[in-house]
Design a protein that fits this description.
The complex is a heterodimer of chains A (181) and B (193). Helices cover 59% and strands 22% of the residues of chain A. Chain A is of the alpha+beta class and 181 residues long. Chain A folds into two domains: 44 residues; 126 residues, Muramoyl-pentapeptide Carboxypeptidase, domain 2, CATH 3.30.1380. By secondary structure, chain B is α+β, with helices and mostly antiparallel strands. Chain B has a domain of 117 residues: 2-Layer Sandwich (Muramoyl-pentapeptide Carboxypeptidase, domain 2), CATH 3.30.1380.20. A four-stranded antiparallel β-sheet of chain B has the order 4-5-7-6, covered by helices on one side. A two-stranded antiparallel sheet of chain B has the order 1-2. In chain B, helix 4 runs antiparallel to helix 5. Classes of the chains: A alpha+beta (181), B alpha+beta (193). Chains A and B meet through strand 1, helix 1, helix 2, helix 3 and helix 4 of A and strand 1, strand 2, helix 1, helix 2 and helix 3 of B. Strand 1 of chain A pairs antiparallel with strand 2 of chain B, so a sheet runs across the interface.
Chain lengths: 181, 193
Amino acid sequence: MLAARVDLADKVLEIAARRGTLYDYVNDVLEQAIRAESLGLTLKEILDDRWIIKSARDAGFTVIPEKTVFELIEDAYKSLGKEKMANLWYETGQWYGKYYEDIAKFEGSVKRFFWDISEFKVSKEDENVVLTCLSSKFSEAYTELFSKFLEGAMNALGYNLDESEVSKGIISLKFVKSKGK
Amino acid sequence: MMSKDTSKEMKLVRAPADLISKLSKEANLQGKTFYSYISEILEQAVRAYEMNRSLKEIIDAYEVLEIYKEAGGMFTPRDILEYLVKKVYPEDSETLQRLWYQTGRWYGVYLKEKTSNSVDAFIRLLREGRWDLNDVIVNRNHETLEFKCVSPLVSQERTLLMQTFIEGAMHSLGYKTQDKECIRGIIRLKFSI
């Protein structure tokens, strides 16, 4: 026997009545809790994360193996040229900036969806914003394009690029607030 | 069976002794009382129910996310991917096909190493991750396995690449392609052991 809070026990009883027996339902719940712990997480953490794929899909992202993305970009660099590719990522970034409409929301989404990024920091200081993005996994081409993506997003959020430092896996961008925004 | 202890506003719920013992140890490890630990678990069970999903489904979905992470999957803006594939495919379809096939093979090998039922794990990966697939229908009997994947939003080029990816994975898992059909947004694949 296990002791449970009355409100929870009543709710569980109500759910179980729709699904089978109380014993079986509680058994299943406890088994799943053990399964979650074996993944090194609590059920709460798993439920909190459960919407990542859905919210990423809703925002127009799709999951694809990084190797495929990097090779596709290398191919496209040759056939489309760097400038066209940079514009494509910049414009897509602008779309996301408008979609999120808020630096903190954009920052949160980048942190949640781009798990290859080991450090993503947006620091605001008066009229300036400094954005730092580090990833040991990014290819050189992908780093360049991702920096254009970030620049496009920040531009849509009302900031113009002032200084940039981009090299394989390292993006450091400094923005100033656009006039009139 | 449920009995009420009115003095402490709690109810006693019958549960398997082995599970209680495991969870009791876990509660101790986390420095929580068994009562508060169980409350947290039941709260999440209720939360899952309110999401119209079972805990099992939610953990299955989470495991798919973990497979993506571990296997080097990354979120990419769909429009960019679609654009690049459309531009590169007419010039070099062979390279792209090979790339998607090899990636599929790699996923197959990975799932074989990491999961106890690699075919089920792959089906879950397609369903939960979806790669923009709206529907993944699987019919299986002891010798064949048929996929029907539907996605009205995906281009002809990406449909073909997805088909190649699935073939790569299934070949790694020991299946042979028996029949295939692909039109924009619809993939039908039949495999045999």
